[in-house]
Amino acid sequence: MTAPADTTSAARGTAATPALEIRDLVVRYGSGRKAKRLPPAIDGVGFDIAPGETVGLVGESGSGKSTIGKAVLGLHPPASGAVRLHGQDVTRLSLKQRTSLAADLRVVFQDPYSSLNPARTIGQTLVEPLRLMGVGAAEALVRARKGLESVGLPADAVDRFPSQFSGGQRQRIAIARALVCDPKVVVLDEPVSALDLSTQAQVLNLLADLRDEHGLAFLFIAHDLGVVRFLAQRVVVLYRGQIMETGPVESVTQRPRHPYTVALTAAAPVPRPAEQAARRAAREALGVGSAGSAQPAAAGCPFAPRCPLATGICVEQRPPLRLVDDSLTACHHAERVPAL
Ligand SMILES: Nc1ncnc2c1ncn2[C@@H]1O[C@H](COP(=O)(O)OP(=O)(O)OP(=O)(O)O)[C@@H](O)[C@H]1O
User: Fold this and answer.
1) How confident is residue 322, by pLDDT bands cut at 50, 70 and 90?
2) pLDDT (tens digit, 9 = 90+) per residue, 135-188?
C-alpha cells in the first residue's frame, strides 16, 4: 500500500460531491417479456456515500443487497438509473473506461476461502490489480508488501499461498488486495460473516482504521445489524428491492420508525436478554411480526391477508411508497401504526 491517500477536497471531491451516488436504480434479472412482467430485484433505490463514510446496507435474505453491490461494481448492468463515482456515471462506461476506473472502486467478498486463488501466491494476487493499472513489476511488489503490513501481516507473506493462512488472515489479504490500488470506494459484501466472533471484531477494527486513515467510502453490505452498528455511520434498510428507511445508524437501530425495521431489529440477536425483551415489546406494540416469519400481520391492516411476509408491510400496495420525512420512506401501512 502506498502512503495514506490525499484526502483533500480536490482529490476526493468536495463535501458537496459524494464519493458514490446511486440514483433511481432499477435492476432486473432475466430477459424477455416474461422477465419484464416480474418485479425488479431493485426498484428505484437511491442514496449517497460521502468520502470517509460507511453506509450499511441491511435487509433480509433476498432483499437485494448484493444486487446493488453488483450494479455498483458493474457486474450486473442496471435497467435504469445511475451509479456515479465522484460524479461520473459508471453504468454507462465502455469496458476500457471502466477498467481505468477499476482502481477507484474495489470489493471485498464474503468468503475468504473462495475469493483468493489457491494456486497463486499472495504476492501474485496483490500484484495483479496493480499491474493491470500499469504499475511496474518492482513497484507493484513493494506496494503488495506494504499492503500486507498495513493489514497486520508480514511482508514476506507475498511468497506464501492462501492455504497457509487462517480465515481471518485470508480476509486481511483480501482487504489488502482491495486497498493496494488506493481506491476511493470499497464495496464490502458481508466481509466478516464467514469469520468467528473474535476475528470479526479484529477485521472490523482494521476496516475502521483503514477507512479513517485513507478517507475511504464503504458500502457495507450485511445482514447483522450489530456488525453494521459497529462500522457504519448511516444505514439503508432494504426490503424487496426498495428502501424502507434510511438514517443515522444510532437512530435507525435504536429508534426504528418503519415497521419493517422494527421487525428486522427485533429479529437481530442481541447479547442482553433485557434488550431483546424490550425490542419484542416494541414489536408487539406496533403489531408487527418478525421479518420473514409467519407471525400475524398488524391488526387492523386491511391488506394483511395479502402481505406475503406478514410483517405488516403491504407489499401488494407498492408503489406508492411515500416520503414521510427526509429520512423515511414508508408504504401507506405506516400511517396506520400509531407509534410512528
Ligand atoms: N442471478 C440471478 N438471477 C435471477 N434472480 C436473481 C439472481 N440473483 C439474485 N436474484 C434475485 O434477486 C433478488 C435479490 O437477491 P440478492 O442476492 O441481491 O439479495 P440479498 O439481499 O443480497 O440476499 P442474501 O442476503 O441472501 O445474499 C432475490 O429475489 C433473488 O432471488
Assistant:
1) very low
2) 999 999 999 999 999 999 999 999 999 999 999 999 999 999 999 999 999 999
Residue 122: predicted pLDDT:
96
Residue type for 329, please?
T
Do 100 and 182 touch, CB atoms closer than 8 A? no
Asked if 19 and 13 touch (Cβ cutoff 8 Å), the reply is yes
**ipTM of the complex model:** 0.97
For the CA of 238, the closest atom of ligand 1 is: 21
Spatial contact of 227 and 270, defined as CB atoms under 8 Å apart: no
Kind and range of the H or E run holding 299: none
Query: Which residue, by CA, sits nearest to atom 1 of ligand 1?
Result: 29
CATH of domain 13-239: 3.40.50.300
Residues 6+ apart with CB under 8 A from 259: 286, 288, 298, 311, 312, 313, 333, 334, 337, 340
> Which residues neighbour 254 within 8 Å (Cβ) at sequence distance 6 or greater?
none
Specify the pLDDT at position 325: 33
Residue 49 pLDDT? 97
- Percentages of the chain per state (helix, strand, coil), in multiples of 5: 40, 20, 40
Which residue has 484526502 as its cell numbers? 7
Give residue limits of the domains in the chain.
13-239, 255-336
Nearest atom of ligand 1 to the alpha carbon of 223? 25
For residue 63, the CA-to-ligand 1 centroid distance in Å is 7
Dihedral angle computed from the Cα positions of residues 232, 238, 242 and 243, in that order, rounded to the nearest 10 degrees: -40
Quote the pLDDT of residue 261.
84
